[in-house]
Specification:
Largest sheet: 5 strands, antiparallel
CATH architecture of the largest domain: Sandwich
Low-confidence stretches: 128-135, 588-600, 602-612
Number of strands: 47
Mean pLDDT: 84
Shape: elongated
Strand content: 35-45%
Radius of gyration: 46 Å
Length: 655
């Protein structure tokens, strides 16, 4: 017989998965044999289901298949239907109907589970004699039913028999491994025995990187200690979810800074983390990938080191290992405390010239300084030291003087009133980083001073260089022409300045130029000119394919039929059942006393001739035709065509 469709259902939601149930049946002596086929429709087009699917099957309330794997967790999408067939399940049944129970459920974090119930027919049973019992027992009266078997887990197998006088053993052959199944009896009845069999883990070594393989089961039937006969079955064994890779992770903080290395701590921006992953595939699988993660960084090698850590807090290193079956395992190392760090900061720093009593004096012979500082504590390990030194402007610094935080300190003595001095204040932490500021202490103020020898002059101070110096702010009502280089130490205000007859903004942003900024400040307020905003548009460099000024493109797009890649759709179906029963007539002669009911089939020849009776032949050749359409897939939803982007403000100068 062929499979008969039971029902097409939509299983679950988000996504809803199409499932078709079908069954086949036949009689074997006093037993009915049933098998179930489950077809899982393709999942794709933006939908996915990354969980395993299992099935339980019961006949008349007795579970004959438990936890059979219909689909493994991987893949999460599939383009062709997934078909599961249970194999024959035996049930002692001579009349009535049989109740089929199907429970379809998922695992590994998904709670989807649905039960389905159906009533199956029972074929007519005829006894072989007047006593109502089968007169001859053959191997057709015995069967071993089971579903897909999971390696390393207990699986249900049912041995169906005519009576309790028969027992059985099961042997297996899988790749290069063979043996006798260690069966544990879970239920016993006159017409059947239900066993549990934990498939040995060693079978996984025969499937390599695959998730399943096929082998042979041999059922040996015994009566009274003698072997009655044997039957062979093909079985499929799946690598169980427990057959995942094993892994361990070791890490170490790496510091190039000797102080941090001595402290043995991890510091943001300064420390890195080295790691090593040890992993092994199980059951013949190999390791196909590594992923190490720490503080927002991810590396794909079995060993290596991160970039300097950029996050703070108590962070846990982790590693995920993937084997060639797509199975993964994630392991972690001991959490690591990452300390925040910044270079020392100077606060309230100043320096001025003073007299011996510390009074501020523009031509004083002493320097008076004061500052305070702070640093990252690094768990109370890090401290900061304040220090000061000075030199004549352009000269060589002398030694450092250590300062107390927030305390005024007097330096030097004997400073020349006609010489300017540069004072450097610095804060250095234990890690070795420093923050430094400099101050210039000028000479005594005078209106105009000529340097000895006439090589220099100064306004508002003593002349110290062979140049024109000015200690005051300078304002020029007329034009200022500079033939040589112009060095600006402070801020340059370019308002009203012209370069070769044009303004600075015209040189930097001529008409047609584009101005980009992450701040929504209109360029007209910054530079002047007339600008137009560019919004919700990418910039594309002009060339031979795209002329300057052309526009186009879209943020999303819906594929047309012509844009779809070439592809196919699978199509399957069954024709309706057709009654092909027929009969033949043979002649018979009455043979015996009246009422005996005995007849002898006669031949078509003359009396006395030894010939076999003939029946006419009947041709059963026929055909069926069917047509239909495949199920629709996809929604036609427009998809984004945008590459990774950073949105900024943009303007184009038009005048």
């Amino acid at each position: 017989m062929s499979y008969v469709n039971l029902q097409n259902v939509s299983w679950g939601s988000a996504p809803a998965i199409g499932v078709a149930f079908a069954y086949d049946y036949q009689r074997s002596g006093t037993n009915m044999l049933y098998r179930v086929r489950i077809t899982i429709s393709p999942v794709g087009g933006g939908s996915y289901f990354g969980y395993p699917i299992y099935v339980n099957l019961s006949l008349d309330g007795s579970t004959l298949v438990s936890g059979a794997s219909v689909k493994a967790a991987s893949p999460s999408t599939w383009s062709s239907g997934i078909v599961y067939e249970s194999g024959w399940m035996s049930l002692y049944k001579t009349s009535g109907t049989t109740a089929l129970g199907i429970r379809l459920y998922s695992g590994s974090g998904s709670s989807r589970s649905t039960d389905y119930s159906y009533s199956l027919p029972v074929s007519s049973y005829y006894s072989g004699g007047g006593g109502g019992s089968v007169s001859t027992v053959t191997m057709a009266d015995f069967s071993l039913s089971f579903g897909a078997l999971t390696i390393g887990q207990s699986n249900v197998m049912t041995f169906s028999r005519p009576s309790s006088g028969y027992s059985a053993t099961v042997t297996y052959s899988f790749g290069s491994i063979s043996g006798t199944a260690e069966l544990s009896t879970t239920a016993t009845a006159a017409n059947r025995v239900v066993y549990g069999w934990t498939v040995p883990d060693t079978l996984a070594s025969q499937i390599g990187s695959s998730t399943s393989g096929t082998g042979t089961l041999t059922l040996s039937v015994y009566r009274g200690g003698s072997c009655f006969g044997q039957k062979s079955y093909t079985f499929t064994a799946y690598a169980g979810e427990s057959l995942r890779p094993t892994a361990s992770l070791s890490v170490a903080v790496v510091n190039d800074n000797a102080v941090l290395s001595g402290w043995g701590i991890c510091v943001k921006g300064l420390s890195t983390l080295s790691y090593s992953i040890s992993a092994q595939g199980q059951g013949g699988a190999a390791i196909s990938g590594y992923a190490f993660r720490f503080a927002g960084q991810e590396l794909s090698d079995a060993a290596g080191a991160t970039e300097p850590v950029s996050a703070t807090g108590t962070l846990t290193p982790s590693a995920t290992v993937t084997d060639t079956r797509g199975r993964t395992v994630t392991v972690t190392a001991t959490p690591i405390t990452v300390y925040d760090y910044h270079i020392p900061a100077l606060r309230c720093a100043f320096a001025w010239r003073c007299d011996a009593q510390g009074n501020e004096k523009e031509d004083g012979a002493y320097l008076k300084v004061q500052c305070s500082a702070e640093c990252s504590p690094l768990g109370d390990r890090n401290t900061v030291t304040l220090r000061a030194r000075y030199r004549t402007v352009g000269g060589t610094y002398g030694g450092y003087t250590t300062l107390a935080s927030g305390v005024t300190t007097t330096l030097a003595g004997g400073l020349d009133a006609q010489t300017a001095y540069e004072v450097e204040l610095s804060a250095v932490d234990t890690v070795g980083n420093a923050k430094t500021v400099s101050y210039t202490s000028s000479t005594r103020q005078v209106t105009l001073h000529l340097k000895e020898g006439g090589t220099g002059a100064a306004f508002g101070k003593y002349a110290e260089r062979d140049a024109l110096e000015c200690a005051w702010d300078a304002a020029f009502d007329g034009d200022l022409t500079v033939s040589g280089d112009l060095t600006v130490s402070g801020q340059l205000n370019c308002e009203g300045m012209s370069f070769d007859g044009g303004s600075l903004v015209d040189m930097v942003y001529p008409v047609g130029a584009i101005y980009l900024s992450a701040v929504n400040t209109h360029p007209a307020t910054l530079f002047g000119g007339t600008w137009t905003a560019i919004e919700d548009t990418f910039l594309l460099c002009a060339g031979s394919s795209f002329s300057a000024g052309t526009t186009g493109g879209s943020a999303s797009h819906s594929l047309t039929e012509a844009e779809l890649p070439a592809h196919t759709h699978s199509f399957s179906g069954t024709t309706s059942a057709e009654d092909l029963s027929h009969s033949h007539s043979v002649g018979a002669d009455y043979d015996g006393a009246p009422g005996s009911g005995n007849y002898t089939v006669h031949s078509t020849g003359y009396p006395g001739n030894s010939r076999n009776p003939d029946t006419s032949t009947a041709s059963l050749n026929h055909s069926h035709s069917f047509s239909g359409t495949t199920g629709s897939a996809g929604s036609g939803t427009a998809f984004s065509t945008l590459p990774p982007y950073l949105a900024v403000y943009a303007w184009k100068r038009i005048a």
